[in-house]
Amino acid sequence: MSLSRSLLHACLSSVALALPGLAMASTLTVQITADIRSSQPGINRDAGTDSVMLNVVEGLVAAGEKGEIRPMLAKDWSVSADGKAYTFTIRDGVKFHNGETMTAADVEWSLEKLIRDPEFSCKTFFDGSRDAKVETIKATDDRTVVITLDRPDAMFLNYMAQAQCGSTGIVHRASFNGDGSWKAPVATGPFVFGDWKRGEGLVLKKFADYSITGDKPDGYGGRKDVLVDQVKYMVVPDTATAVAGLRSGALDVLPYLPPGEAAKLKDEKDFTIVAAPHGGLVTMLFQTTDTLMSNVAMRHAVIAALDTPAIVDSVTYGLGIPNNSLVSSGSLYHTATHDKGYVYDPQAVPALLQKAGYKGEKIVILTNRRSAINYDTAIIAQAMLQSAGINAEIEVLEWASQLDRFNSGKYQIMAFNYSNRTDPGLAYQTVVGSKAKKPNTVWDDADVAALVNKSLQEADPEKRQAIFDDLHARFLDQAPFVMLANGLDVGVSGPKVRGYRTWQGFARFWGVERSE
Amino acid sequence: MLKFASTRLLSAIPTLFIVSVAVFGLIRLIPGDPASLMLGDLADADALAAARKTMGLDQPVPVQFLIWLGNVVQGDLGRSVLNGQPVLDLVLHRFATSAQMVLIAVGLSVLIAVPLGMAAAWRQNGGLDLTIVALSTLLLSVPTFWLGLMILLAFGLKLGWLPVLGYVSIADNPVAGLIYLVMPVLTLVLHEVGIIVRMARASTLDVLRLDYITHARAKGMSESAVLLHHAARNAFGPTWTLIGLILGNLLGGVAVVETVFTIPGLGRLIVDSIYARDYAVVQGCLLFVALTYLLVNLVVDLLYPLFDPRVTAE
Question: Over the range A126-157, which residues count as b (16 or more CB within 10 Å of their CB) and which as e?
Fold first, then answer.
């Protein structure tokens, strides 16, 4: 072979290795719209970071498909009679990514390190400021860990499994540098954290020694068969570019696509659209301290003027499921009671407006362009309200500005999405409270707050169900805001991908196959 | 020349101070709280207060400014609130990415646009002139995001000649790095060519009307000799100034092109940081951009006498 041909061959080989479309076999290439914030679970995180990192780390327990708590690194647990001590039995033979076998002492060390970290995003779940305080974490033998609380807390395991807490993931000491600073996760999950190029993307590699099995995939618990060698995440902020990448084969999965973009691909046989609601809330908030919106008849008038199923259908391009209950449509607590929702009745609006003493005053709906669902909701709602005789106007803000207005409570109506809350109690806790203490509270009612607290302390599912049913009836009666649907995640996978599905807003890559 | 350069550099200090005050103040005038953006709707009042304290936002703005300025003077631009990275490292890394794309693009633009502009002037009002002027106007009018997407769809998707996504640093793999840069560079070149052609044409036309050109023609020199030996160098002066401005501008970030072609450059960092209200990064980036702009234009001024001996760097 001549020198020039050798050189050409070498050049082409090096290019081929670098091009995503020509990368190694069994590499699943996935879009992320922004880089992860950190590789430390539960610390400096956002939803996108959680979605990536929960392929790498696991906690003692995990959330199942319907939000039930499932065993993960703990094979089982028991709760003491006084509800204050949780005894976890650790699974045998669980390996860390560095090959070491996990012990109860590792669990104690890791949990102590995370829960006592002042930057832990779920600090308030465990320090007594919101619910119970974790007093001690003790490894009583090689396989047993006992966590003692200062008071009973029915939500404790739920908090442990929360995605924004990084599932209180257990990591090895080698995850930290000698000075105690974070290095990279050495955890137990089905993927190993690989090369991370900030601003460009990262790679997760299959963990060959992963041993935890279950009968079937079940939320973040259950069976986790890894069917690809690695997952390569690429930061692609622009949707049009990402879709071009999917079409060219450079990307295999776009986990978070605006519904409008996904709808354009719906009829193309090469692409599989996956859409599923999660525990987030798609809402139109009312400021109940506002002169106009403080009147419950006014709020009912607005609701009667809104055809909420039509709004949901339109803004999600037929992919969303209307839900007027704060109990997520995927929750085991979402019974027929929670299917009862608003009645679209434009004929009733004039009487309600008269009762409210409305004289055509302007009502401003705040929205933003970051969320296509928020923006489209505001547009359609404005048209429906105007046609019902309500003088609605839209003010479009940049997202950070809108969040500022949300936190200060300075708005009349606002199209707003809450992030994922897997448990209905947490969904209610997010919106219920005292506006005097917390201006971003939406539903200020002492009786309701007491019920919500009760739901968080109650472990019996039947009693919790009764509380949620009661709360839903009060919600429809008081109309503190408009609940349109649960958050919706729409993803698209390419022709070579099998088995990808979205769940609770997370992109899990076990059970996903890529054919060559 | 040394005196000129040092005077210019010293005069940059008050400029940079004004820029730093403006950037520091303006970013804080925009509504939006970095702490609440970071914590999202999980935030309660205590968590927000704690986050603000950690970020130093609990201090009065003038105190925040003085602390930041004191650190900047010592070469510390702070840390990103988003990922904890030192801002200086972040800025330099992203700048290197943007710079390799911008320098190639501007270099190619000059090589294409200057001869085209001069040729258009040489054949003023002829078919060639009209074609070049029409094309340059068209290229100027087309938004870069649209142009970029069309190039991406054509060469990446339809023809499949070039990778649609991704980025490889030239330092890591020169061949692959260049292949990834083809489409973004082409987008920038097409846009900048439109601007430079017009300036090259206009300045060449100005020079061609001067007496010494008439004199050269009267001596019986050929048109090509007049153009290349007498007009070109003098006509390039104003174009050179424009190139300096373009270079300074593009080195400050080409966010749109970087977003379309997934290049992790400085422009994308600035935009992302503004959305996230990552004050330290926004301040660091913009201060760096201002410094880059000043330095590029200083170099342009220092080199100007090479093209126009009437101007001296004194």
Answer: bbeebbbbbeebebeeebbbbbbbeebbbbbb
Q: Tell me whether residue A51 is in a domain.
A: no
Token couple for A226: 């890894």
Chain A contact for B79 (CB, 8 A cutoff): no
One-letter amino acid identity for A30?
Answer: V
| Residue of A17, A234, A419 lying closest to B262 (CB–CB) | A234
- Judgement on whether residues A466 and A401 belong to the same structural domain of the protein: yes
The reply to whether A495 falls in a domain is: yes
Write the CATH number for A413. Answer: 3.10.105.10
Domain boundary among A133, A168, A203: A168
Is residue A262 domain-shared with residue A154, that is, in the same domain? no
- Residue in A234, A248, A254, A422 to test binding to B, most B beta-carbons within 10 Å: A248
- Cβ distance of A241 and B165 shorter than 8 Å: yes
Q: Count H helices, E strands: chain A? A: 15, 22
**Pairing relationship of beta strands A85-90 and A74-79 according to DSSP bridges:** antiparallel
- Please indicate, yes or no, whether residues A425 and A508 belong to a single structural domain of this protein: no
Name every chain B residue with its beta carbon within 8 A of the beta carbon of A9.
none
Chain B positions touching A438 (Cβ under 8 A) are 44-45
Taking CB atoms and an 8 Å limit, are A244 and B43 in contact across chains?
no
Q: Is the CB of A400 less than 8 angstroms away from the CB of B30?
A: yes
Residue-by-residue pLDDT tens, chain A, 516 positions: 444 444 444 444 444 444 444 444 599 999 999 999 999 999 888 889 999 999 999 999 999 888 889 999 999 999 999 999 999 999 999 999 999 999 999 999 999 999 999 888 888 889 988 789 999 999 999 999 999 999 999 889 999 998 889 999 999 999 999 999 999 999 999 999 999 998 899 999 999 999 887 778 888 998 899 999 999 999 999 999 999 999 999 999 999 998 989 999 988 989 999 998 888 999 999 999 999 999 999 999 999 999 999 999 999 999 999 999 999 988 889 999 999 999 999 999 999 999 999 999 999 999 999 899 999 999 999 999 999 999 999 999 998 899 889 988 999 999 999 988 878 998 999 999 999 988 889 999 999 999 999 998 888 899 999 999 999 999 999 999 999 999 998 999 999 999 998 888 889 999 999 987
Contact A235 B164 (CB under 8 A): no
Dump the DSSP string for B108-146.
HHHHHHHHHHHHHHHTTTSHHHHHHHHHHHHHHHS-HHH
Q: Which helix (H) or strand (E) holds A450?
A: helix A446-457
Q: How many Å apart are CA A413 and CA A406, to the nearest integer?
A: 10
Is the same domain home to A16 and A108? no
Cβ–Cβ pairs < 8 A, chains A and B: 145
Q: Do B275 and A400 touch (CB under 8 A)?
A: yes
ipTM of the complex: 0.80
Number of H helices and E strands in chain B, helices first, is 14, 0
* Structural domain boundaries enclosing A102: 61-168
Confirm or reject contact between B230 and chain A (CB < 8 A).
no
Chain A residues touching B38 at Cβ < 8 A: 44
A230-235/A27-32 β-pairing = parallel
